[in-house]
Structure formats: C-alpha cells, structure tokens
Specification:
two-stranded antiparallel sheet, globular, alpha/beta, single chain
Length: 470
C-alpha cells in the first residue's frame, strides 16, 4: 500500500547529489523555494521544497555527502510552529503523507507540516544511485538486471552508512536548520517511531516540544516481536478477529458455526485455498487485517469461499488496490526495497540465521501469515554492525503521546507497552489505545487520531485514554 509511484516532470538532478537524486525545485541554496511539481497534483499545491547536504558518514568523510530532501506545507494562516512528519518503511519516503493533508491539517491547525525523505528514499540520496535514479529502466523502483547490481553493492562501505543512527543525525540536521525557535512537534509512524526514538537518543534536535508516536515499534532488542516473528504477530491479531466473530450470534450464523473452524477449513482444503487471491489464503487474509473495512468482510468472504464463490474475496482485493491507487501518484515514493532489506537485516531481525525450513514450519499451524519472515532469509550477509544507538533509550524526553491500535498486525500493543515501559524514566509518556485500530492510525482511524493529536498539541499533556474505530 505504501509503495508509491508518481510520474513527475520538471525534475532536475543536482551535480553534488550524484545520480538518483531528483529535486522538484530550482534553488542552488539550501533555502526553501516553490516546488516545481506543486501545480501537477492538488495535494502538492503551495508546497515548498529544499535540500540539505549532510555527510554520508560522520566518521568517514571520504565517502562523500548525502542530499536530504524536505517538503514544507505552510500553515493555512499565521504559523504557530512546525510538525515534522517521519514516515515508516524503512524504505518509504515522506510522500505517503501527501494524500493525508486533510486529517493532518485538522490535527495540527496553524502548524507548518515538514515532511522529509530520509536517506535512501524519495528525492534524498538513494542507496543504489544508478539503479534507483528516476531515468533508470525501472525509475526509482528496481527493474530487471538492476536488482542484481544494486543488491551486490550492499556490502560496500558506502551502503553501510545508510543506518538508522546516521538517519537520526540527518533528522537533527534538518530540524536544526529549518526549525528555528518556534514550537515543534515530532511525529513518527511505524518505522518512523524507531527513527524518532533513535534521534532523541543519539542526536536530539535543538527544540522538540512534544512527540507523537503512531503504531509504536517494540524495543530494538526484542526477541519475539521482531520481523522474523511477524507471522506469529499477524496470526494473533487474526485470531482475535475470528474470536470476536465467534462471540457474535449473527456472525456465527453467517458462517454456520465457528469462524476459526471456517478459516481452518479454507486453509486446509486445497480446492478452497485455490479460490483465495493468489491461492494463498493465509497471506490474503493477513493483508485484510490492515484495513478496518476489509477486515470486517472476513466472515462474509470465508462463507463465500466455503460455498465455492471467490467473488467477495476478489472484491476485497480490488478495494485494496483502489485504495492504494491514491498513493501511486508520486514518483518519489517508490519503496526502496534495498533500504528495507539492509535495515531489516541489520537492526530488526533477531534471528539472522533463520532458515526457510524454520519459517515454513512455524507457519504451518498458523491461520494468518506475513511475507516478511521469508524475505529476511539470506539477508544477514548484507547487514551492517549494530552501533551504540541500538536499543539505547533517550536520556530525556519531552511529553510523548503514543497512539496504538489493539488490533495492530504489524506493531502489536504488547510491543508498544514494552517500549513505553523503557521510555517512562525519561519523561511523561501517555498511551491512547484505539479499540479495533490496526496499523498507521492517521490513515486507518483518522477520527481518533485527529481528536487525540489535537488535544495533545494544545495541552502537551499525554494522558491515558481510549478511542474506537468508527
């Protein structure tokens, strides 16, 4: 859903950035200037663009510099301050926020929205400059032989500079350069919460008045909630959804009995499993858990599949594709799979030696799965060594609001609660639990997000609370 593509014109390549950096503005300095693509999509109207030069490595200047792209959406009316929006991924650029300006404006009225592309993504310097260049065969995505040449470069010293800690230094440089002394809120979602916390631990910006963490990741050193265990996390949430159906008379009646039994029947019967999109019901139903509207269709889809009817499943698949289409307009947001691979293997995999046989054996008894564990196999050879920032807690925190769904199949509530326990000695941390909330609550539960974020910005009091997905 967050791998975004946009065919933009009027882009130019800066000589200092090397191949692969596109920037939609015409300024030779690092100051903000009108974005040349601002008139090409309503979402970009009035936006300003800038790029800042930073070292690829603070300890190896011979490796050169990175160009860091940031887009600003000025406040509507007098500006009260800034909100820095840090995207997930880790291969996702800031353009995933562009279609969400309406809830963002509502949550942060009067604030400038500052949206950077962290190193390796979007219009910032890319991990594979030639292969991820806008004018390469696959554009900013990889295509054909680009996969091989790009991934073969991941063992090079330059590739090792694309770490979370170096990205944290980038974020501080951007915030200090463009932040000034006005009120500043720092928001991160998913992997963005990991980057925000790393920044506050190893490279705190000059001013941060409040932090909002949406879908908070578990502690870095978790051994049970890392990416290699993602299928177990997805399955636990999926079974909660099925259990809620089993507790509802109408839902049970729709299935003629237990939802768990219905799901097991579809998974175990090759004929029924083949009716699910892709012929992989565990992966398909796992994907539906991310979206409340499609998640609610699971009982009806199961009932139809057991009757030999794939139409509701195909309808849900088409709805997901249509939903994702709104995020496919921006060229800069093509997901950087090399960066995902590098950071996932280096910092978010507790089992670097995990094998396909292990992954398959663990998935055998699950009803819902994720493709991520299988994608980690063999990635350890490209990993960079973890630095002193790994699992380091910030020494001091401004007020922090955590927004977490209790049906999040990516960053589970238990992991967020474990992370909060580590953060509390450094400052005030409040948790708002979104009942029925999945991942990325700004997107999937905007009403809860807007109400909670707006109240927090106004008071800086991160109290405990609950909200429910409509």
């Amino acid at each position: 859903m967050k791998s975004l593509v946009f065919a933009a014109a009027a882009l130019w390549l800066t000589a200092t950035a090397g191949p692969g950096l596109a920037a939609p503005f015409d300024s030779a300095s690092d100051a903000f200037a009108p974005c040349a693509d601002a008139a090409r999509d309503p979402a970009l109207t009035g936006s300003l663009c800038a790029r800042l030069q930073a070292p690829l490595s603070p300890t190896a200047p011979d490796l050169g510099d990175a160009q860091l792209f940031v887009r600003q959406f000025p406040a509507q009316g007098p500006s009260r301050g800034q909100v820095w929006l840090i995207s997930g991924g880790p291969g996702e650029s800031g353009a995933s926020f562009y279609p969400l300006l309406t809830p963002l404006r509502a949550a942060f009225p009067g604030y400038d929205l500052m949206i950077p592309d962290h190193r390796g993504t979007g219009f910032s310097t890319r991990l594979c400059p030639a292969e991820e260049a806008p004018k390469s065969p696959g554009g900013m995505a990889l295509s054909g032989a680009e996969w091989s040449t790009c991934f073969s470069a991941l063992t090079a010293p330059r590739a090792k500079t694309f770490s979370i800690s170096n990205a944290a230094g980038d974020l501080r440089a951007l915030m200090d350069r463009y932040g000034g002394d006005r009120p500043t809120i720092l928001y991160g979602v998913s992997y963005g919460t990991q980057l925000v916390l790393r920044t506050l631990a190893v490279a705190p910006p000059r001013r941060v008045d409040g932090v909002i963490l949406d879908s908070l990741v578990p502690p870095d050193d978790t051994t049970t909630l890392d990416l290699s265990h993602r299928s177990a996390v997805v399955d636990a949430v999926g079974r909660q959804v099925l259990a809620r159906c089993d507790a509802d008379k109408a839902c049970r009646a729709q299935l003629g009995g237990s939802a768990v039994a219905a799901m097991q029947a579809v998974v175990d019967d090759p004929r029924l499993a083949a009716l699910a999109p892709g012929g992989k019901p565990k992966l398909f139903f796992g994907a539906l858990l991310d979206y409340p509207a499609q998640r609610a269709q699971i009982p009806a889809i199961l009932a139809a599949l057991r009757a030999g009817d794939p139409a509701p499943a195909l309808k849900a698949k088409a709805e997901l594709e249509a939903f994702a289409g709104d995020f496919m307009r921006f060229e800069q947001s093509s997901m950087s799979i090399p960066l995902v691979s590098l950071i996932s293997a280096s910092e978010n995999n507790a089992r670097p030696s995990v094998t396909k046989a292990q992954i398959d054996a663990e998935a055998a008894d699950l009803l819902f799965t994720s493709p991520l564990p299988g994608q980690l196999i063999g990635g350890a050879s490209n990993a960079y060594p973890r630095d002193a920032g790994f699992a380091k807690a910030p020494a001091q925190l401004p007020p922090v609001l955590v927004l977490q769904g209790d049906l999040d199949p990516k960053t589970p509530l238990a992991g967020a609660q474990a992370q909060i326990a580590r953060l509390k000695p450094a400052g005030r941390v409040g948790l708002t639990i979104v009942r029925g909330g999945p991942h990325f609550l700004l997107l999937t539960a905007p009403d809860c997000f807007v109400a909670s974020a707006k109240a927090f910005v106004a008071t800086k009091r991160p109290g405990r609370g609950t909200c429910s997905v409509k």
